[in-house]
């Protein structure tokens, strides 16, 4: 099984930088994803890490350390529309040959003016 | 980008009836599709994984006879909730993956099911 931990809530102000951490434990690691989910909507893909290091994509960056079972999502120049839940999801090799994606409980980010 | 659609977007049904939810990949062929369920303020929980043309693999605790999954083509998977009960009311989300296990999953917009 997997154990994925991320903070429940975070607050930040418009224009600031925020880092959302995620720790995980898994037996067959095969990649880590970050998704953004606005209330009542499906998740949208933000980033994917499978090797150690930093992946940068515009205002969003994601970091992975496999040895530490640790990732973070960095959001720069925060905007009001960034208020959402951010889900850390870990893929493992699963059973029966299928890889499975397990989600953390999500971090609700509130961006204030 | 890859687009996944779901139909219907919301449905209200009476207890004891069956409801079918469709998931379609619009601009790519999805060899693997996933069905998730999300209760309010909780994370997504994987229900089952299906590959086109083969039986779905259900996660522990998910009743395969209650949640029927059919992945008959590379662009369509269906989830049928049989004999629905109020506790089945939830947000059902599908996702699709084009190829290898390293590919990104793309999510549908979700279907909100309310069972009265």
Describe this structure in words.
The complex is a heterodimer of chains A (113) and B (116). Chain A is mainly β and 113 residues long. Chain A is built from no helices and 11 strands. The mean pLDDT of chain A is 91. In chain A, the strands form 2 sheets. In chain A, strands 2, 4, 5, 9, 10 and 11 form a 6-stranded mixed beta sheet that branches. A 5-stranded antiparallel beta sheet of chain A has the order 1-3-8-7-6, with no helix packed on it. In chain A, strand 7 and strand 8 form a beta hairpin. In chain B, the strands form 2 sheets. In chain B, strands 2, 4, 5, 6, 9, 10 and 11 form a 7-stranded mixed beta sheet that branches. Chain B is mainly β. In chain B, strand 4 and strand 5 form a beta hairpin. Chain B is globular. The model of chain B has no long low-confidence stretch (mean pLDDT 90). The N and C termini of chain B lie far apart (37 Å). Chain B has no helices and 11 strands. The chains are: A mainly beta (113), B mainly beta (116). At the A-B interface, strand 4, strand 5 and strand 10 of A face strand 5 and strand 10 of B.
Secondary structure: elements and pairs:
The complex is a heterodimer of chains A (113) and B (116).
Chain A: E1 3-5, E2 9-13, E3 18-25, E4 29-37, E5 44-49, E6 53-57, E7 60-65, E8 70-75, E9 84-92, E10 100-103, E11 107-112
Parallel strand pairs in A: 2-11
Antiparallel strand pairs in A: 1-3, 3-8, 4-5, 4-9, 6-7, 7-8, 9-10, 9-11
Chain B: E1 4-7, E2 10-13, E3 19-25, E4 32-38, E5 45-51, E6 57-58, E7 67-73, E8 76-81, E9 90-97, E10 105-107, E11 111-115
Parallel strand pairs in B: 2-11
Antiparallel strand pairs in B: 1-3, 3-8, 4-5, 4-9, 5-6, 7-8, 9-10, 9-11
Give the rounded overall mean pLDDT of chain A.
Answer: 91
Q: Which outline of chain A best applies?
A: globular
Strand content of chain B: over 45%
Instruction: Give the averaged pLDDT of chain B, no decimals.
Output: 90
What oligomeric arrangement do these chains adopt?
A: heterodimer
What gyration radius of chain B follows from the Cα positions, in whole Å? 13 Å
| Helix-strand category of chain B | mainly beta
Overall geometry of chain B: globular
Percent in helix of chain B? under 10%
Low-pLDDT stretches of chain A are: none
How large is the radius of gyration of chain A? 14 Å
Number of helical elements of chain B: 0
Query: How are helices and strands ordered from N to C of chain A?
Result: EEEEEEEEEEE
- The residue ranges of chain B in which pLDDT falls below 50 over 5 or more consecutive positions are none
End-to-end separation of chain A in angstroms reads 40 Å
How far the N terminus sits from the C terminus of chain B, by CA atoms, comes to 37 Å
- Total DSSP helices of chain A: 0
Query: How many DSSP E strands of chain A?
Result: 11
